[in-house]
Amino acid sequence: MRILIILLLLTTSAWAGELDEALRAKEAGDYLKAVTLFLPLAKKGDPVAQFNLGVLYTQNRIIQRDYAVALQWYIAAAEQGHAQAQADLGMMYERGTGTAQDYQKALHWLTQSAKQGNAYAELQVGQIYASGLGVPEDDKEAVKWYRMAAEQGNASAHAKLAECYVKGLGVPQNDAMAAKWYATAANYASDENQRKAYLSNRDALQKDIAQRQTTEAKFEDERKAREAEAARKAEEEAAIRQAEESARIKAASNANFQKEDLNDVRMLLDDIKKELAQIKADRARANQRSQLAIQMERRRAEINAEAARRRREIEAEDKRAKAEKEAKAEKEAKADKEAKALAAKPQEPVKTAAANPKPAEPPATKPAEKPKPVQAVQGKVTYPAKAELSDDELKHPLIRELQPPDGSIPGKPLIKLKQIEWSKKQSDS
What we know:
CATH architecture of the domain at 2-218: Alpha Horseshoe
Strand content: under 5%
Radius of gyration: 81 Å
Strand order of the largest sheet: 1-2
């Protein structure tokens, strides 16, 4: 057993020497020597030699390009776990190079290679998910594989991540992150042209970012101004609503107070109306009393005038009677004087009167004079009468109120009402 292991190690060591020599020949551009050395090793099952033979068959160097033969050598190396052979085999299935296009096989071999940390394979798996080739399109899965490749310094993976951030595929849109990934892609670029392209994309993004930031700042200022204006209007509207609510509450309260005040005013008005009615009634009563007092005053004046007239008539009658009495007394005195004078003279014979003397006529008497009508106030004709009110007038309540307790007229000498009789005879004639 030990001898077998020693032989295997010697064989492996010999293959390693030949493989190294073949790789150096390939790197030196001596493809004929490289093919000569790779071919026996590949036939013996060396995966590195098999992979390199596959590469030479795709490059058309020394040996004629033959993708079908290259595919076979890639399969042989991939089945032995050669990561790059698995990646190239997956790409041949994806593109349909040397075989029918088969995305399932392509994804299988690329995934096998990616699991071994092959950055190229990780990038290609991400592109398959991003394109939806043989699998449902999944940008988030694509981004995951892009990040794995980018961590190993794959420039294309950095650029793919930048594109994802620009377009917002699998990640939130973010131009700043995209510019960052383009910058790192330029750092890992394999040639100057690729590096310049990545930097150009970065600069364009940064310019867009600056313009966008300026625009966004302007929009932000405008937004803040609009929000401030909206807030101001909202505050004004809130203040107006609050004022309206306060006014409504105050109005309602005032309405209640006004209603109560109105009720009080109405009650006061009712009281005032009652008082006015009472005052009106009192005024009417007072006016009636005043009219009655005026009438009584007029009646009193008329009665006094009538009494004065009667007094004057009595005085005149007394003077006339006195004058007649004095005249009669004087006449009697004269007659007595003459009689005395005749008695003192001697007696003369008395002459007899003729037969059948005419009897002396009695002295004529004057007929009683009728009382002359007296012209009263306002052209009405009144007749002498006693100063007395009628029974109907005496029954009037105001007459009783105005009549003094003793039956006298206020402010005048007491006159018994039965002394004068007020007559309206012939007043209607």
